[in-house]
Structure formats: structure tokens, C-alpha cells
Design brief:
It is a single chain. By secondary structure, this protein is of the alpha+beta class. Among the domains are: 88 residues, Phosphorylase Kinase, domain 1 (2-Layer Sandwich); 165 residues, Transferase(Phosphotransferase) domain 1 (Transferase(Phosphotransferase), domain 1, Orthogonal Bundle). It has 11 helices and 10 strands. It binds adenosine-5'-triphosphate and magnesium ion (MG). It is found in: Membrane.
């Protein structure tokens, strides 16, 4: 074979092989692309679906009127408005909270931004926000319905059908919901109003925290403390809400602590229905009680002193922590020995944590003597 012919055959073969490679590569890519694209489309669809479901839905006032049978079934009222039971056409039960105040167009964007944030927060121990309504005559929030209502119904009233173990689960669930809001949300959410009324229970008494994000969304009315713009509910609100201290997520921790006391004691720490004059008496009695239950006998007052405390004929100094045995690590150094051996808090010295304070002139005035052991 001549060299020219051999070279031509070689070139044709090389060309054919290159062509074959290109065609197979093209086919492989097409097939690959097709199978990839099917996969991608499916995942994106699912993803978008998921996002869609997680987005709060906007309802019209008419739809909410229909769903609630013209707001026929009132579940309760609170600082933000009234809550009604409703049901959507697919059978989903809902709780519709109709908010006080007008729907000023200027706040629509801010309202939707806040609702958008709350509506995307999902956790087992947080009540789900399905959607909202923002119309001239109605501002409302549509929540997942919790068939057993709020914890206060079971904690303070006669129907003590929740046992101790379940109560402990409720406390833990509430703590988990709050931990999520504080520590796991992209943007920390401070609740500002943790109390038994905002812990809702489903049909199995599984707890979910309600109303998170609402403090930012609405201005509270005067059923709640308003001192210097304070928030929260008396008996649960942390002191920094009305005192000049920085307000952080720790105010929820304080309220949760108060809630824990109530869960364990199954009674309210503070009865807000007491008239003002009775409240003063209650506070005086509580202070007297805290003095009586001091763990150190020498710190407890004489009964004649207790009588004066209860009758209001003496000013009661701030009680010491009566349970230092529970808080060994936080009580600071031991009180000075001279205090323990022969002195009386109502005579000369008081100990607050690690601080030693001198008695008030009132104690001296009333010649109050401390019990000695
Ligand atoms: N999602 C819900 N499912 C079932 N019942 C609910 C729901 N949300 C609220 N409720 C009922 O409505 C009552 C009133 O709720 P609302 O949140 O308006 O008042 P509150 O919790 O007592 O006070 P606050 O305004 O400080 O939250 C609750 O105590 C509860 O019984
Ligand atoms: Mg509430």
C-alpha cells in the first residue's frame, strides 16, 4: 500500500472514531441532562411546595367570617384581642385572633414582615401561625387550634386532671420552645409574655408556646403593665421591664422561672384580681412569710414581731433568701460569725446574699428583738 493511501485510511478512521466519541458523548450528556433535570425539577417543586406551605397565608375578612361562623365561638380574650374557634373547608380547625386597633395602611408592610417571620418559625413546642388577615376593618392572626386550651385552666382551677409527670413534661416542652426562640432562630425572638395563659395544650396535652413575636407586632393595651413602655404581665414580667436595666431574652427566663414555681405549686404566685388595698396586705404577708421560713432559726423573727409585720405597724425589711441550702453556690460567703452568734437582724444587722446591711431605724424604734436560739 502506498504511503499516501495508508495515511488517508488512517485519517478517515481517526475522523470516524472522533465522530463516534463526540456522538456518544453528546448522547450521554443528553441522557444525563434529562435524568438530572427530572431530578432537579422534582426537588425544586417539592422544595417550593414546602416553602409555600411554610409561608403564612393571607386570608380575607370574608374568609375568616365564614371559617368562624361569624365569630360565633369565643375561646377567650387577652391583651391583644379576642380569640375565636374556626374551621376551614378542608376540616382544619383553627384559632382566629382578632387584634385590637385599626389597620393603618402605613403599618401593613411592617405587619407583614413580622407575620412573615413568625409564620416561618416551626418547632414542636411552638404554636404554628397559619396566616393572617390585614384589611381596613380587620387585623387577625390564624393559628393552629389547640384543643385543650391554655395551661392556666388546668393549673389553677379545680379540674386537676394533669398529673405531676405530665406537668413536668409541659415544663420541659415549654423550656424547649423558648430555647428554640432564643438560641436557634436565625433572628432571636424574645417572647416578653411567658405565662400559663400562653402555654397551649393539644389533645394529648402536648405543650406549645403561643403568641411569640406578638409583642413586636402589636402595642399592648392597658390590661398589661405600661410603666415606661414596659411589657409583660404582672407576676411574670422581669423587673428590667420597668426598671432602667437592659432588656434581653433573659426576661423570658425570669418569666419561665415564675411559671415553674406555679407549675410545682399549682397555684398563682400573684393574684392580680386582688384590689389595690388587699395587694398591699398580700405583699406584707408574703414578706412576713419569707422572714418566718428562714432556714436559720436565729434569722426568724419573734411572733410578736410577726404580728406587727402582719398588722402593718412596722416597716418590713427586705427578706433574706430563705433557702440558702438550695443555692449553696450562689449565696456567697457565710455571714459574719458575730451575726450568727448573738445578734438579731431586727436589732442590728441583716444579710442579703453576701452583703451585710444595718437594720433600719424603724426596727430600733420598735425595739424589736430577734429570737435567739
Ligand atoms: N391557638 C389556640 N387554640 C386554642 N385556644 C386558644 C388559642 N389561642 C388562644 N386560645 C384561647 O384563647 C384564650 C385567650 O388567648 P389570648 O392569647 O388572647 O389571651 P392570653 O393568652 O390570656 O393573654 P395575652 O394577650 O397576654 O396572650 C387563651 O387563654 C386560650 O384559652
Ligand atoms: Mg395568649
Amino acid at each position: 500500500m502506498r504511503p499516501v493511501a495508508a495515511a488517508s485510511i488512517f485519517l478517515v478512521l481517526a475522523f470516524l472514531m472522533a465522530l463516534k466519541y463526540m456522538i456518544s458523548e453528546y448522547l450521554r450528556r443528553i441522557r444525563g441532562k434529562n435524568s438530572d433535570s427530572t431530578f432537579t425539577t422534582l426537588t425544586i417543586d417539592e422544595f417550593l411546595d414546602g416553602i409555600e406551605r411554610e409561608k403564612p397565608i393571607r386570608f380575607s375578612a370574608e374568609q375568616l367570617i365564614l371559617a368562624t361562623g361569624n365569630f360565633a365561638s369565643l375561646l377567650g380574650t387577652g391583651g391583644f384581642g379576642a380569640v375565636y374557634k374556626g374551621m376551614f373547608s378542608d376540616g382544619t380547625p383553627v384559632a382566629v385572633k382578632v387584634l385590637h386597633g385599626s389597620s393603618d395602611k402605613k403599618i401593613e408592610e411592617q405587619f407583614m414582615a413580622e407575620v412573615g417571620t413568625i409564620g416561618r418559625v416551626h418547632h414542636f413546642n411552638l404554636v404554628r401561625l397559619y396566616g393572617f388577615c390585614f384589611e381596613r376593618n380587620m387585623r387577625a392572626l390564624v393559628y393552629e387550634y389547640m384543643s385543650n386550651g391554655s395551661l392556666d385552666r388546668f393549673l389553677f382551677h379545680d379540674n386537676k386532671i394533669i398529673g405531676f409527670e405530665k406537668l413536668c413534661e409541659i415544663a420541659v416542652g415549654t423550656a424547649k420552645g423558648l430555647a428554640y426562640l432564643h438560641e436557634e432562630c436565625q433572628q432571636r425572638i424574645v417572647h416578653y409574655d411567658i405565662k400559663p395563659g400562653n402555654i397551649l395544650l393539644d389533645e394529648k396535652f402536648f405543650p406549645k408556646v403561643a403568641d411569640f413575636g406578638l409583642a413586636k407586632l402589636c402595642n399592648r393595651d392597658n390590661t398589661h403593665i405600661t410603666m415606661t413602655g414596659g411589657r409583660g404581665t404582672p407576676g411574670y414580667a422581669a423587673p428590667e421591664l420597668w426598671m432602667p436595666y437592659a432588656i434581653t431574652h433573659k426576661c423570658d427566663v425570669y418569666s419561665f422561672g415564675m411559671l415553674l414555681f406555679e407549675i410545682i405549686g399549682r397555684r398563682r404566685n400573684l393574684d392580680t384580681n386582688l384590689p389595690e388595698k388587699d395587694r398591699e396586705v398580700a405583699e406584707r404577708f408574703m414578706k412576713a412569710a419569707l422572714w418566718c421560713v428562714q432556714s436559720r432559726p436565729e434569722s426568724r423573727p419573734l411572733m410578736s414581731t410577726v404580728v406587727k409585720m402582719l398588722e402593718g405597724s412596722m416597716e418590713i425589711p427586705s427578706p433574706l433568701n430563705p433557702f440558702p441550702n438550695l443555692f449553696e453556690q450562689t449565696t456567697g460567703p457565710e455571714p459574719p460569725s458575730h451575726f450568727l452568734s448573738n445578734s438579731s437582724i431586727f436589732e442590728s444587722t441583716t444579710v442579703t446574699g453576701s452583703k451585710v446591711e444595718h437594720s433600719t431605724p424603724v426596727m430600733t424604734k420598735y425595739e424589736i428583738h430577734m429570737a435567739t436560739t
